[in-house]
Amino acid sequence: MGDNENMSNVSTAFNNALEVISKSEPEVAGHIRGELENQRSQLKLIASENYASPAVLLAMGNWFSDKYAEGTPGHRFYAGCEYVDKVETLACDHAKELFGSSYAYVQPHSGIDANLVAFWSILAHRIESPFLASHEKKHVNDLTNSDWETLRQSLGNQKMIGMSLDAGGHLTHGFRPNISGKLFDQRSYGVDPETEMLDYTSISNLAEEFRPLVIVAGYSAYPRKVNFAKMREIADSVGATLMVDMAHFAGLVAGKVFSGDFDPIANAQIVTSTTHKSLRGPRGGIVLSNETELAEYIDKGCPMVLGGPLANVMAAKAVAFAEARQPEFREYANNVVTNASALAAGIEKRGGRLVTGGTDNHLVLVDVRQFGLTGRQAESALEESGVVVNRNSIPFDPNGAWYTSGIRLGTPALTSLGMAENEMDEVADIICSTLQDTEPRTTSSGENSKAQFKLSDKVRDTNRSRAGDLLTKNPLYPDLHLL
Predict the structure, then answer these.
(1) Most buried among 161, 178, 191, 304, by the most CB within 10 A?
(2) The CATH classification of domain 64-324, taken from the options 1.10.390.10, 3.40.50.300, 3.40.640.10, 3.30.565.10
(3) Residue 155: is it exposed, middle or buried by C-beta count within 10 angstroms (0-12/13-18/19+)?
């Protein structure tokens, strides 16, 4: 198929879809158009966002949405799942080939679902199964009420350690506001106060003292590699299961940027991920493992944790995994890291302070206190200038998790647009010139506000124009023209 024909097909597909939607609810069609225009007019630097291909987007909108399919391929609780079985099997096969894993489970609806499936699989394997065997029972329904209560208490009395939130960890890694924190007795490992990097000796000491059942590695705002081989050594030394949440950097694993000691698949017993972010798929989750004894428990994710799997999203996952298996994806993954390094260098040379002093991955964490701002003020000022980021805590953050002292920047989305190192330097200048011109407003009590700010119209308009120029040269979905 020629390029012109492909451009026409993409535009026709989306225009027809919007026309159909408009006939039922025109406001929804209008909001869909508005979202596209928004994304086309802003530099997207949110590290957890990307742009899925038209093929991935279209794979989600079809009659697979209408199927119930609890169970696994060939073992469903509903009839009529022939093609759901085929598409789920295809998605699993692509995932296993892509990541070099012997087992894949593609049903989780999100990252938190994938993590819950992993947690409960570990608990089922290490706590529930031995308990059933010791009572000569095959199923929890066979237990007496008294024995079930004993097992239930044991399941809810296990320990976990994970990365602290201010150091870059995630709420789903055992923190109290999240269900994972209500499930486990959790302790956090942080980073060295001087280097702001992981201290594996300190992690080892915590594990030895606390003796957790589960050690969680992975992050949402740590701009460095993690040595998963060292983490596995620590886990093995205390009899813990190593679980890695690679939601943020799955694309770098798929693209073989992270390998050897830094490859979670090769080192952890169980690995979870989202399928969007750096992987450029649909919003959803996945669980991977090379441990055959865990597979049977992971397969019970539905009904253990999940409701019916979303067959339309599994279809989109299959498309995304197929795309990521192409040679171009490795080039893309390497470019994501190269661009992050260029963005970090551009910010640093303009006086910005970077947490850990740089980056090894797709994200950059900027301490905005040297600009006299909170993360919330920086986030809002940058949005006015055409740059979308998110505020983020930094290690030992004095401003807490709401206002924060940092902003998190990620390069997956801009790299998907084709931007390279020169553009990253321009983006760094837009960011720094905006922040340098932004000032906190004064509250009625005479103190600096943590939320309100002042940004000159001239700087705002100039930088919004500069951002627009970059997007004009590197457009989002250039084959797509809405009527």
Answers:
(1) 161
(2) 3.40.640.10
(3) middle
Whether the model pTM is above 0.85: yes
**Local structure of residue 167 (DSSP, 8 states):** T
DSSP letter, residue 249: T
What SS3 class is residue 194? coil
Task: Return the sign of the alpha-carbon dihedral for residues 241, 169, 351, 42.
Answer: positive
- The tokens of 255 are what? 């693209």
At residue 1, the pLDDT reads 34
Residue extents of the structural domains in the chain: 64-324, 330-473
Per-residue pLDDT tens over the stretch 355-397? 999 999 999 999 999 999 999 999 999 999 999 999 999 999 9
Residue 44: strand pairing partners? 388
Provide CB contacts within 8 A for 415, sequence distance 6+: 332, 335, 336, 339
Is CATH 3.90.1150.10 the classification given to domain 330-473? yes
Task: Give tens-digit pLDDT for 151-210.
Answer: 999 999 999 999 999 998 988 887 888 888 889 999 999 999 999 999 999 999 999 999
What are the beta bridge partners of residue 244?
A: 217, 271
How would residue 7 be classed by pLDDT, with cut points 50, 70 and 90?
Answer: low
Q: How far apart are CA 33 and CA 15, in angstroms?
A: 10
Q: Looking at the annotation, which residues are catalytic?
A: 68, 70, 245, 274, 277, 283
Distance from C-alpha of 298 to C-alpha of 286, rounded to nearest angstrom = 11
